[in-house]
Specification:
It comes from Paraburkholderia edwinii. The protein is α+β, with helices and mostly antiparallel strands. 46% of the residues lie in helices and 22% in strands. The strands form 2 sheets. It has a 6-stranded antiparallel beta sheet. The protein has a 4-stranded antiparallel beta sheet with strand order 3-8-5-6, with no helix packed on it.
Length: 280
């Protein structure tokens, strides 16, 4: 017996699951859509077992479980269990300078104060699913994404403990939040980080990132998602939402990146959706 409640919070989907006496399996590389997501699960009551890459672990109340489904996994519920799940696109993590791949499922226990705060915030967001407006839920979902470094970055990458890596992460998160602002510049980003533009540029380039190239890359990726999700959107409106000064400039940059115009890209996704609908 099980029940499932799912609601969108911007790019993140919040799922509330009640399950008992059943198993859920996701095969390795089940689909491109699954491979492009990352899951965070919080057991609030009951208990479940998790199998991935030949390892089995027990997840108890208070634990947070980070899963990359590209490796396939199996979850088993031998008693009544409630699980709150964050289903997040890896592209959104990349925009924030966070790791997108987790080789094996990992448990973040309640001992860490930061993990505890993160857990309570996610449960707070889940408690407002279906009650708050879509706009507010989107903002809360973005905050969950911003906080994901608590779970996935600092525990695997020794360099993430350095001051420069932390500052670079903050810069990338700042860029992601202001991607629709056409006046966004290195100077403005640096000012909000209380550092000089030259220092910010040197720091990011040391990590292989040019500040404004990163901005342009995120703008184009954001535009591609908008066109794929809503292929009927006016091109000028998409350009504006992604921080481009005008539609012509946006179209040239988009074609250089994706080898097709925004209209062609949107038409392709519209046709693909139509084929999928007919096939169902």
């Amino acid at each position: 017996m099980s029940s499932l409640n799912k609601v969108s919070a911007g790019q993140t989907t919040v799922v509330d699951i009640n399950a008992a006496w059943q198993s859920i399996s996701t095969p390795r590389h089940a689909s491109v859509c699954i491979d492009e997501r990352l899951y965070v699960q919080i057991v609030t009551s009951g208990m479940m077992s998790m199998e991935q890459n030949g390892e089995t672990m027990t997840v108890r109340p208070g634990d947070m479980l980070v899963i990359d489904p590209r490796a396939g996994f199996k979850e088993s519920f031998r008693e009544s269990t409630r699980v709150v799940v964050l289903n997040m696109p890896k592209s959104a993590l990349r925009e924030r300078g966070l790791r997108m791949h987790v080789p094996s499922a990992c448990i973040r226990g309640p001992a860490s104060p930061d993990v505890g705060v993160m857990r309570e915030f996610v449960l707070h967001v889940a408690s407002h699913a279906g009650k708050a407006s879509d706009a507010l839920l989107a903002r809360l979902g973005d905050q969950c994404l911003d906080l994901m470094d608590v779970l996935i970055n600092g525990h695997h990458d020794p360099a993430s403990d350095s001051a420069s890596a932390v500052t670079a992460l903050r810069a990338k998160q700042l860029i992601a939040r202001h991607i629709g602002d056409p006046s966004l510049s290195v100077a403005r980003i640096a000012a909000q980080l209380n550092m000089s533009a030259s220092s910010l540029t040197r720091m990011l380039r040391a990590q292989g990132v040019s500040p404004m190239r990163y901005v342009w890359s995120l703008r184009l990726e954001h535009a591609a998602r908008l066109l794929a999700d809503a292929p009927r959107s006016p091109i000028g409106e998409v350009a504006f939402q992604c921080g481009f000064a005008n539609a012509a400039h946006f179209s040239r940059a988009f074609k250089e990146r994706y080898a097709m115009t925004p209209r062609e890209y949107a038409a392709n996704h519209k046709a693909a959706r139509g084929d999928a609908h007919e096939g169902s």
